[in-house]
Every structure is written in structure tokens, then in C-alpha cells.
## 1
Amino acid sequence: MPIDASTRFCAVYGHPIRHSASPAMHNPAMAALGLNWRYLAFELHPDNLRSAIAGAKAMKFIGLNLTVPHKLLALEMMDALDESARTWGAVNTIRFEAKATDGQWQPLHMFSEPPNDIRAHGFNTDADAITRALREDLKFEPRGKSVLLLGAGGAGRVAALKLAQEGVGELHLVNRTTSKAEQLAAELKGVRGHVGYPKNEVDLVLNATSLGLRSTDALPFDPKAFSLSRATAAYDMIYRPAETPFLRAAAEAGCRTANGLGMLLYQGAKALELWTGKIAPISIMREALMKNVYGSSI
Ligand code: ATR
């Protein structure tokens, strides 16, 4: 569909943004849904986040995604916060909304001529994407399972809290800086976090550290303290490279494996559903993402 005066926009703001795969994933999905919409990417300094959100609102953008370093900053810039953004303490998706004739706030896709009074509604689609990726890409159901989580940074923290919320049975936390793993263990509700390597077998090892992004990186765990032969499945939040040394070692040890592409896919799919009110065309999005990230769909 050609761009014309009726074209509507979504965008991602990030700093840096150059390697974002989100436009490649969303534009074919919008076209497949028959929408004359476009998804753009903007390099945005955090000092300008507030005015850039106001600008998108004034121009009646449908919605925004936010990535590093904007997700936490945006929390106090929203006019309304969904439970998901409140629970995870971060906003990765904004839906712009206006009041319908019945006085209820509705997403802008519901209006052919949106009114000028628009609010920014903040959501978080990252946490749900973790468990959806584990379920759909790894056939891993968290309830009652034993997990070794590597990393207690931003991504590791959300993974731990989400797994606890989903009823994981045992959670072992390992982090280079042990005090951060201890703090995270103290924050958990519903499961006791054990800091350190497990003595017994685990159902899943989840890498939420940045180790593996560079080819020279060490493994994200100490092979003298833990062997992957004691795990059934392994998930790496990293998706570039497609197979980190951690995932390769896990596959060689007989684990089921999956990389972090699914997390990127499912957070995007949920955002698209929030904006459009339609089911996201997952297979089109996955294929577009793989082409963008790996240069092929295999
Ligand atoms: P993210 O938001 O992606 O989680 P982060 O909060 O900076 O980013 O967390 C990075 C994670 O990778 C942390 O668990 C970090 O360990 P520390 O908490 O000790 O910093 C881990 N990490 C990064 N570089 C590492 C390295 N060289 N060795 C071991 N762990 C590393």
C-alpha cells in the first residue's frame, strides 16, 4: 500500500537503534493485516524522550515501542499504566488512545478521525514473551520445574520474577556479582531463590547474561561447578549469534535448545495486537525477523 495522507505510524525509540530488527518484523505484519500503517525506528537521546512521546501523540501515531535506555524512564511519562508495566516496572509498548462517544478510552485504530485529546497508555510485553518463548520454542512449562538462571541484571531479574509468578518449583540464581543474585532472591515471591549452582539435575538452564554476544566471551557458567549433562533444556536470551557457545555445548550435552529470537518475536506480536486489536501474523513476523537477523529464514 503506498504511503499517503491516511497512512498511520508506529515507531521504536532507542539509543542506540541501528541494529533494531523491529521495523523488519512489523512492516510485513502490518501489510499482511491489510493496514496502511508503517513502523519506523528513531535514534533518540533519553533527554528527548518526553518531547518525542508528546510529538508522536500530537501526530496521532498509533503506538510506540521503547528499547534501551527508555523503558524505565518512560514509566513516569505515561498518562495511564497497564498492570503489566506496573508489575515489571518498565514500559516497552505505548498505545495511544482517545475517548469514544461512550467516554471510554479506545485505541486510535478505532477512530477514522481521532480527536485531539489523546493519552499515552504504557504496557510491558517483555515478561510474557519470556514464558511464551519457553513454552512455544522449547516446550518448557515452568510450573513445578527446577531452573538454573544465569544472570541477575535487568533481563535476569524479570525472568526470575516471571518464572516465580508462573509457579516454578526451584530457582537457582548465579551471577558474576553474587550480591545482585542475593538481592534478587530476596525479592522473589512464591519460590525460594537459591543462590549458587544446583547439586541435582535441573529442567532448564536459562542464560540472561550478555556472555555469548562476542565470539571471545567465556561460557556464562563455571563448567567446573555445573555440567550441562545435568540439564534437560537450555534457553539463551541472546539471538545474535543464532548459536552461542552455551547453546552449542547444551545441544552437545543432549539438551533441547532455543535462542532468544522468540522473545523478540513475542514481545513484538503482543505489541502489534495491542495496537491493532487483531491476532498478530506470527509466522510472517518470525520469517521476516529471521531474514533480517540471519539473512535467511532457515
Ligand atoms: P540486561 O538488561 O541485558 O540484563 P544488565 O542489567 O547490564 O543487562 O545485565 C548483564 C548481565 O550479564 C549481568 O548479570 C552481568 O553480571 P553482573 O551483574 O555481575 O554485572 C552479566 N555479565 C556481563 N558481563 C559479564 C562477564 N564478563 N562475566 C560474567 N557476567 C557478565
## 2
Amino acid sequence: MDLTDFSAGAQYIAGRQIRGTGEEPFQVVNPADGTVVQQVTLASTADVDAAVAAARAALPEWAGATPGARSEALLRLSAVLAGAADDLARVETSQTGKPIKLSTEFDVPGTVDNTAFFAGAARNLEGKAAGEYSGDHTSYVRREAIGVVGSVSPWNYPLQMAAWKILPAIAAGNTIVLKPAELTPLTSLMFARACTEAGIPDGVVNVVTGAGRGAGEHLVSHPGVAMVSFTGSTPVGRRVAELASATAKRTHLELGGKAPFVVFDDADLDAAIHGAVAGSLINSGQDCTAATRAYIQRPLYEAFVAGVAELFESVRLGDPLNPRTDLGPLVSFTHRDRVAGFVERARGYGAVIAAGGHAPAKGHDGTDLTRGAYWRPTLITGVAQDSEVVQGEIFGPVLVALPFDSDEEGLRLANDTPYGLAASAWTRDIHRSLRATREIAAGCVWVNDHIPIISEMPHGGYKSSGYGKDMSQYSLDEYTQVKHVMYDTTAVARKDWHRTVFGDR
Ligand code: NAD
């Protein structure tokens, strides 16, 4: 099966790729040069209804399959995805603009590994031990699928986000309708087709390509959907939770971030500089865990700023399909202009632009970058803690660096935004690192690194970064519900406790 053939349409419903019946045609654009990658027809609300109906029809058989059978299917899926690695990487790069080396070495192998992990996890769904807790009954716990999951995902890591949403849901026996971001639907469609290729029954995994306000709102409000799992921005997450609450659906929200990067004065400065460049520029900074606020203890501050600025200038912008390109464009021209707006406004309120701060003209490979949505790595200093670039999610290759004096101050500043997704602390002192990991309010705190993720460990936020965990065994808790089953063991008609309701002992 050629996973890259989108000619039949951009909806994947009941095991078939079909055309949406929404009225407006939509173009998936390559942000590296503005060319059209794929023209699609978006989903109408009727298409969403059809996808939910397909997921409901597939539910009894899939939820009733043995964990071993679901695990086998996921293992086959992992092999299909691995076999399509080159196509997945190329399509991911063409729809997002991310460098091919990132797609090839991070997005695709991460997805394959995640699939293999959930194949194993599907067989490890445990409940509590059974027992006679009242003396007169045997109790046990069943962990059951929830039903149809309606999932909405963002454009920054389309393939990985599809995997993070689909895999734990189906490993636990649910069926799913995923609505990827309309800008980047192609690798989610490829993932769904790969599911069919792997023998996962029709209707277990459905993808509707549509707009947030149309298909997205219809999906998360749908009475046939039992749970909503969302990854995206905090304002849209709030709206999704509001819509889902009308029918009391379970919600799982992975929202925005504004990760601090705290460098104490005993840190390995060179490691911190390299870590800040990689941690802030990964995926052009369009990563919810990217380093965005570097707080540097005063003795290291000047050297850190100079070191990061120098490395930022050496980063190779260019054609994302060139394997030597470090940094591609942002996902769209609109988003690039939004990032530029943050930087322009910061200039207006007196920021120092220590590196970048503009769109580039030519790439390292001679590419004309003015045709794409490029932005140079930008280092900002000299702003206040309450300024927009420190508090707001820019989601671009922009790092702010600010000095601090005492450890208390550094940790206080790290916690001083509404977000709490990820953070890092840089120190060689065990006590400082223990304090930082304890006091920073975030779902993940790295020590002497920033970014790595692994399938076995949970990913998810504190505070306005949402709740619920992706990846790891913890995510299976999200996609299952717990049932207490209680058996009478006395076989007595007139039970002792009845007297609390009628009669005497
Ligand atoms: P977004 O919130 O604009 O859109 C996310 C998804 O929601 C898209 O599919 C969009 O079509 C849909 N949507 C928009 N309005 C909707 C509505 N009213 N009802 C239902 N669905 C709607 O986010 P984005 O710009 O695609 O992605 C960037 C954001 O995602 C950033 O804030 C980033 O931090 C966040 N993100 C978070 C994580 C995490 O794990 N916490 C991971 C990746 C991205």
C-alpha cells in the first residue's frame, strides 16, 4: 500500500480513504517555499458523524479483543511504520518545514518506538488485587475501555501527536476519531492507513481533516464520543473543555508551555550554552517543551549570552530537505508573522536583540529563503519578567535570557508564568538539583539537559499547561475507566447490614 497517495481524499473513515464533503477546498502548503503539497476537501459535520459512527460500530469487537491480540496488531503497526519511515519523514518535512534530519532521526523513530512500547503496555493493564475487604464480599477491579475517543491534535509534530493520541487509546481497547490540525493532516492519514495495513479492524482508527471551529468543535461536543483528548494551545484547550463538559466527557488536555532553563553559577557553562541552543531551536522552537526563558546566575550571565549568540549565528537555515540544514521555516507565513510581531513589540519596549531578530534572505545552501516562512534564531535580553516575550508562548526560535542572583530568585522566576509543562536546571551540585527538581512546578524537569523524551516516561503539564499524561503506562490510566465489582460471599438472604435500613438484628 502506498501510504503517500492522497488522491482518494483526506478523510479516513471505516478503513477507507475518502473525500470530505465540506464545502471549502483547503491547501496543505509547504512553508519552505509556499508551494501546494496537497489540495484537500475538509470534513463537514456529516463526515465527523460518519467517523464517530464507524468508531462506535468497531468498539465492541475491539474492546473485546484480548490484550494479546491488540498487542500483536500494534507490533505489526510498528513494523509497517518502520517500513514507511522514509516516506513519513519526507511528507512530515514537506507539510511542516521541519528539517529532514529531525523528521528522520526524531519524529519517525520516536513514533515507531512509541508503537512498540504500547504493544507491550497493552498486555500490562493491571488492576488492584482482589480481596475480601468487607469480610462478606469479594471485590475486584476491572480496567475497561472508555468508548469512542475524540482527539484533536496540533501541527508542530503531526505524526508524533497522532501516535501519542491514537496508541494508548487503542491499546486500551477504545476506538478513536482524530482531527489533526488542518495545516498538517497528511502523516496522520498515513498513520491511519498503516493501521489498516497492519490488520487493525476498520473503524478502530478514523481521521477527519477539518477546521477547528467546524469539525473540531463538532467532534468534541459529539454525544457519541465518550472522551476528549486534546493537544494544542491553552485558549483552545479551555474552549474544548467547556464544550466537552456539556455531556460530562472525560477530558485530557495537553496545552501550551513556556519552559524555563535555569543555569546556576556552578554549571558546566559550555554544556548549558549547547543545551540552550538545541533546547530552544528544536523544531524551530515550535515545541511545547522548548527552552524559552533562560535564567542565568549573574557570574555566568555575560558569557552565556555571548556563547548562545555566537552559536545562534552559526545555525544553518536552508531547504529542509537538505540533510545539512539545521533550521527550516516556521509552519506557516501567518505563524512566522506572529513570531515577528512578538520580536518587533519587544524592540518597542526596549529589548536588546543579542542575535537574529529578522527574517533571513539566503540559506547556507543558496536557497532563496524569502519564499519561505523563515525566521533567524533570536536571542533577546534586557526585558522585564512581566514582559510579553517572557510571559507569552511565542512558539518560534526565540530565546529570552535574564540574569538572577540568589537560588531562590532563580527558582521563583522559573515558576513565574501561568504554564508548567517542562523545565531544566543546570548545576553540578546535587543539593541544588534536588531543590530545583522539587520546587519547579512542571510536569517534567530535566537536570543538565533539555528536551529528551522517551516512551516509558509520562509527558504532560501542571498549571495552565493542562492535565493528563501522554506516553508511558500513565497514559493508559487516562484511556481506561475503573470498575469495582463486588460479590456477596455469604449467600444469606437477610444480611447483617440490612438492619440499618429496616428491622432489627
Ligand atoms: P491550536 O490550539 O491552535 O490548535 C490545536 C488543534 O485544535 C488543531 O487541530 C485545531 O484545528 C484545533 N482547534 C482549534 N480551535 C478549535 C475549537 N474551537 N474546537 C476544537 N478544536 C479546535 O494549537 P496549534 O497552533 O495547532 O499548536 C500549537 C500549540 O499546541 C501550542 O500552544 C503548543 O504549546 C501546544 N502543544 C502542546 C503540547 C503538549 O504536549 N502539551 C504538544 C504540542 C503542542
